[in-house]
């Protein structure tokens, strides 16, 4: 899902022009004609979240500074980019002091507007990621910090929230990398044991003897040789056992006693020891099938399966991919000291189309690599060559080394067309059938773009296009822009433009 920009301006022409420009950047847009309407939209329940506010400072009733003050009073601070005129730059400085991230002077060029919005979104994503990391480190975070929208993940979160309010064991099932440990940490943080130890044991790849040592510790001849195990470390808190399906039958029996009786029987201890531990387990294999195959104890399975939770794979949670990717990008860019706006619209489409067999963990790795080797301000499909090679419609060609010897023409395989990464304002020279477009069409499109870009300022349009004003008027009439021009031109010039066009029409 593309970032959503709320454009707040009392001038309908300014709202329309800003919305058209911003949509060309690949963002979703909404508009509000007053400060009060903007606040009502931001507080509306069930509406899509607004990722950034493009806010005009000069409005009747509630102006831009008033909107910022109201948002701060409500402890709601979406990233804000303010718009002002050249004569009111002092007000923009006040807005920055009040909490706005950036300002643009009307009429802002598309490049300046894109940079301001991109920087605002990037900074907001970085701040959100840092807040999430701080909450995770302190144990004060919620399920909302980890999980997005979607029927399956919402069902899993509801079960996890209910499980967090009890002391019963929890079993989380799901594929490798689907976020099972993350969910276990969220359950611990939402329980009455938050702030106490959360201890993890990962069983995959461990021998039975090593699992036993890690769980129950080591006992030696002297106190200095005695090492507490994970169970002792987790006293008063939660013990998370990942891939519990890999436990040996002996360890399953000893773990059953912990779950059933709340006791630990140390092999060298004189008697069982009481344990105050919340057990959370996960498995990437079907446990009931292992029970049928007599590879997992049935009694332990039903003790663990009180609150079964399924963590759905990422391919069934595609709406979350963009948010996860932007969060990873913000974190890795900050660690690398880079300034990145995040994945482009084309890159988001690519990432959303991929099935991610290793789920969130694989996405995190892909984003780490892309950020490490990124050279531009945005991550494009060129930064994900391995992913693009596996998704139809994205063919990313990697150029050969400069000193590589050319191969004979006969040995070269037919080239597939490379992925075309275009600026939304670029002029297409090829039509859908693969033929060159006619000069008349290109000229009309260039004039239409200039009309919006320079907001109907005819002298500047003519100068930048390299033609005279009378020629420009005539061509606009020929291409049918006469009726559209007054709505697209700046308010103080639309009347003069209409008169000029009428005069040109009469002269013709």
Automatic annotation (TrEMBL):
GO terms for cellular component: cytoplasm. Residues 484-508 are annotated as: Disordered. This is DNA-binding transcriptional regulator NtrC. Residues 4-121 form the Response regulatory domain. The modification 4-aspartylphosphate is found at residue 56. The lineage of its organism: Bacteria, Pseudomonadati, Pseudomonadota, Alphaproteobacteria, Hyphomicrobiales. Member of the two-component regulatory system NtrB/NtrC, which controls expression of the nitrogen-regulated (ntr) genes in response to nitrogen limitation. Phosphorylated NtrC binds directly to DNA and stimulates the formation of open promoter-sigma54-RNA polymerase complexes. Coiled coil: none annotated. One of its GO terms (molecular function) is sequence-specific DNA binding. Keywords: Activator, ATP-binding, Cytoplasm, DNA-binding, Nucleotide-binding, Phosphoprotein, Repressor, Transcription, Transcription regulation, Two-component regulatory system. The keyword Ribosomal protein does not apply.
